[in-house]
Amino acid sequence: MSGALQLGRSKSGQRAIIATVALVAILFPLAFDPLATQVNTAIYVVAYVMMALGLNIVVGFAGLLDIGYVAFYALGAYSIGWLASDHFTGVGGETGIHVLVSDLIASSPGIHLNFFLVLVAAMIIAAVMGALIGLPTLRLRGDYIAIVTLAFGEIIGRIALNGDEIPLGDYKLTAGQQAIAPVDQPFLPGVNYEFDSAFNLRPYYWLGLALLCFALFVNFRLRDSRLGRAWIALREDEVAAASMGVPLVRTKLLAYAAGAALGGVAGAFLGSYTTAISSNQFEFSFSIFVLAMVILGGLGSIWGVVAGATLLATIDRYIIPEVLDDLPSKFGLDFRLTQLSFGIFGFLLVLIMVLRPEGLFPERRRKIELTEGAGAADDSLYEARS
Amino acid sequence: MNAPTVPTSQRAAVVTLRAFLGRYGLILALLVLPVVYGIQDLSTEGDLTRLGANLVDGLSNGAIWALIALGYTLVYGIIELINFAHGEVFMIGSFAAAAFWGTIGLTLTSSTAGIVFGLLVTLIVAMLASALLNDMIERVAYRPLRNAPKLAALITAVGFSFILQNVGILWRGGGQQGVDDLIGQNHEVFELAGVVITRGDLLAVGVTVPLVIIVTTFIARSRLGKAMRATAQDPEAARLMGINVDSTISLTFLLGGLLAGAAGLVYALYQTNLWYFQGFRAGLIAFTAAVMGGIGNLRGAVLGGLIIGCIEQISDNRIGGQWTPVIVFGYLILVMTFRPQGLLGEQTREAG
Questions:
Q1: For the whole model, what pTM was predicted?
Q2: Among A233, A244, A243, A237, which residue's Cα sits nearest to residue A377?
Q3: Identity of the residue in A151, A342, A369 whose CB atom sits nearest the CB atom of B332
Q4: pLDDT per position in chain B (352 positions), as tens?
Q5: How far is B145 from chain A (nearest CA, A)?
Q6: B25-338 has which CATH code?
Q7: What does the pLDDT look like over B237-254, one tens digit per residue?
Q8: Are A147 and B325 in contact (CB < 8 Å)?
């Protein structure tokens, strides 16, 4: 154990650990059947880690407590629902609109864009909405920001749920609790390869892993960029940051947009994997679930967030439903553990906060003070302006 | 009018307009729904009975939200924490009330005197249950974090909210469940200008008004209330003056819990339908109410609760219940954006 710690301290040791983890992550699905539950779990884990990395930008780097993150999951998922399914049957006439799709889909009606184009669209849609949601929170202090983001998350969830009442031209905005399905699978036009979650899960996993690498890259580059330093300055002391020339509005909105974009990518990926977009997935508890990952790992610490998200996602997707689900019945209790999964997360949240509020792998640079300085700063700025 | 004065007067007009909107914009926004539907009623039916009925239902519902909102505002005033678990405390109060009246054998066939007396006892039991629960949460989840960043306590609050929801699931299952309509809440008592006042309406108002008066008087007049106000203003100075800050905070949570328990019983009798998620919904609505009135402000919380109750009823009745959360949260965002200090002004340390 102490040897491992020693190893973790030195730079080359860190590289070795990261390389090992990466290798294990890449080879992992080969150890199981192509349709194994474990691979299915791993795909969700990868997507959730991506979302946690997105939320980490908003909450961890910029210190803006966002508890409505599920909104971006929803936007990403609906992007692929709108742009890669039969939902808008009749758009583009009999033939529909097709861009770089497989021959199989080329004859079906509706809008069908290539998965990777949809990813870009999902990023843009989510980022724009993220900035819009950020707008009203600009002058607010910590916990008020949380409430506004929560309200937005709930509103978007409700719109998804009742979207079958909202007309959009001749169509409906969403399909409500009935899913928009089937959603197209990813397709690589150059090599003419189409993914298929019914036959082989491994390619999906590797695709997710590639997207995750992209998310990690974005996280690291942003953290070390001028913008990333501005976020950290903002989090530490808003007044000081503003007086050093950090543009508050732009910096904050960019944090919301960047975080949202990653959520949108993860949402589109999961939407395509599950091939059905229904409103039931987008509940408040999911926002808290993602937040719990970020906090468990350690706010702002990228590898910490990856670890926290992997742990919680595995507990949620595998350990509770597959391994421990019938535990209560073994003790003669009449319920299943899956019913209580959010209670278990609540318990974990309380436990982490009371015992180790800085998370499992806290960021080295400093302990995080989220709201104290920022709150006071907000008020005095507000007064100075008006 | 010569050229230079036009922009000046225009600018003056813009400034006046902005000041006007800043002060009254929220009130105008709140009046939109009743005014629009009032005009619609007048033109189609010729009277305002339907709107009146909406408002009466809204006020009774709002009375319940007001009781819960008081708990939020009390706690926020003193430790500046959004007690996310407060809605669940209310839910547990409801469940405890229903369980208790079941235990003492109150059913639809009980005698009137029995029901009245039994419900009085149930009210006390529900209030105590919620108060003790709220105090327990404070001790376990918030007190150890008194010196940690504020975010930490907010997250434990959310954690406890989930834990209590699951307690609710284990207690009464995951679905909605009806309870005995002990008081016949829909029974007409009298009619006022064509609007029917039911027993449920009277119950909601009859429980809320005395409780609000007692609590506000307690905080304004009693020694302990003075200690609470002192702690809210400046905990350090209060400690130096010999006030036990920890027990004062405990008292605040107890008071909030008492009110939430009372709201729980009224809700059970009024809605005659319980489920584990009612607390989460009610919590968000009541928090919106507290912010709308001005957080930390007791009268504001009551006013906000009543307003939100009316908005909800109008929206339920005219637009459709499935859109009500969107409307309520839309108002929450409007309030936060344009008037974060609320209608009556917030009373917190940060506001000064």
A1: 0.85
A2: A237
A3: A151
A4: 454 555 667 788 888 887 877 777 778 888 888 888 888 888 887 788 888 888 999 999 999 999 999 999 999 988 888 888 999 999 999 999 999 998 888 888 888 888 889 999 999 999 999 999 999 999 998 998 887 777 788 888 888 999 999 999 989 888 888 888 888 777 788 887 778 888 889 999 999 999 999 999 999 999 999 999 999 888 889 999 999 999 999 999 999 999 999 999 999 999 888 999 899 889 989 988 998 888 888 999 999 999 999 999 999 988 888 899 999 999 888 888 888 888 888 777 765 4
A5: 7
A6: 1.10.3470
A7: 999 999 999 999 999 999
A8: no
Q: Which residues of B touch A165 (CB under 8 A)?
A: 322
Cβ-defined contact of A357 to B149 (cutoff 8 Å): yes
Per this entry, what is the length of chain A?
386
**ipTM of this predicted complex?**
0.83
- Cβ atoms of A177 and A94 within 8 Å: the answer is no
Return the amino acid letter for A303: W
In the block, which residue shows the tokens 């959360």? B325
Q: Determine contact, residues B187/B198, Cβ cutoff 8 Å.
A: yes
Query: Please, are residues B77 and B94 in contact by the beta-carbon 8 Å criterion?
Result: no
Whole-angstrom distance, CA of residue A149 vs CA of residue B122: 38
Residue A380 CA to residue B88 CA, distance in Å, equals 35
Q: How far apart are CA A147 and CA A131, in angstroms?
A: 16
Nearest CA in chain A to B139: A354
- Domain residue extents for chain B: 25-338
The alpha carbon of residue A325 and the mean position of all alpha carbons in its chain are separated, in whole angstroms, by: 26
User: Searching chain B, which residue's CA lies closest to the CA of residue A287?
Assistant: B158
| Angle subtended by helix axes B245-271 and B199-221, to nearest 10 | 170
